[in-house]
Design brief:
Strand order of the largest sheet: 4-3-2-1-5-6-7-8
Shape: globular
Strand content: 15-25%
Oligomer: single chain
Number of strands: 14
Number of helices: 18
Length: 480
Amino acid sequence: MEQKKHIAIFTTASLPWMTGTAVNPLFRAAYLAKDCNWEVTLVIPWLSLKEQVLVYPNKIIFNSPVEHEAYIRSWLKEKAEVVSEFNIIFYPGKFSKEKRSILPVGDITETIPDELAEIAILEEPEHLTWYHHGRQWKTKFQSVIGVIHTNYLEYVKREKNGQIQAFLLKYVNGWVTQIYCHKIVRLSGATQDLPRSVICNVHGVNPKFLEVGKTKHELKQRGQIAFPKGAYFIGKMVWSKGYTELLQLLSKFQDELSDLQIDLYGNGEDFNEIQESFSELTLDTRICPGRDHVDSIFHDYKVFINPSTTDVVCTTTAEALAMGKIVICADHPSNEFFKQFPNCYTYNSGKEFVKLTLKALVKEPAPITDNLLHELSWEAATERFIEAAELKEIIQEKTLSSPKPFMAMSSDDWKKSLEEASAYLHNAISGIEAARYAFGAIPNTLQPDEQQCEELGLPFERKLFDGRSAAPDTDLSKMT
């Protein structure tokens, strides 16, 4: 039998942090592993205890990677009823409060043995490579595919000196993705245009949402009320996740929307500010703690209002459509995939938002065909990913490749040499602590510290004062 090709999926977050880069790569690993062509390893960040409490909700903590892995597999089985055989390994990470992100520590390519380094999928490749110092990704792996999840430029523009930061970040993103990735998959046109990229939504929804949608359809067929409740929004409670746009719309059109009642669900750093701001409206708005979107409390809402324009492809929008709800969202590149669904209402102005909201409150959602439901599934998303990433072509190319005869360098060879030189330059800069700090890296993240090494079972390499490596048992306190 032909040996399976190995895929290593690197991502920037992990459960129980319910963010897109934790959930979607997990499902991608599970569904790719169901395909008989692949052996899959999911590579996720490990946070030390003091940082887990800053990131994970409901005071969930893990004393070891074994505990953390058990939680992830249990969630996948219980919350999604997905059983799949794939590996989970951890790389050392640290949480940046300023970026509200987890950043890799050390050379995370080392987590995969050289003999298994065939295909690497980098979920958020720019994020994973901004401060990468170590083996060149294209040298370590035969093929490197990046999946762009986040519109970082849009987030940065909302910060102080945002336009300048976005200008610089645009070129840094283009640089690191070009030198470290063979191919880029952009989830929508809302992302930055990058070299060697294609646009394709390669995400699906938890199968539980599709089950809810089918149940609601059966209720309507029996003449029962499927959606007795009105409108809601769910999202992390930070202003940039759509709450700014929603507050502006509701504030401007309070009179026109006087009959609207909307419930907002989420947890986040701006919870108190958001609660205070929405309480000043004359509209009936309720701020509620965050819950898993599959929770039964959401099943009876008929209308999902999501004005966010910072998402690349909004997972909650896909989930609401899968449950058979009407979705009201902006006519924006991030929502292009959803326009094929009859229950997706897109608006271009505030007045159109009001018109569609009032229409949705009195209208019943249209039934969704089986073909459209399939488009929302992870089976379909995996099919799209295999095609967009050209995984089957990668296998054929590696199988059929042979040494080239000696000849003058072609233009492709020149480009490859320039990229290698550029990667060497990035590696040199990223190895300088002062340069890393200047560009926003967390201090002392060139190598994992002693605690991280102990938690992950990695050898800890102490550094002497002149930068040389010390033996693991060297007592630095006795050195002069």
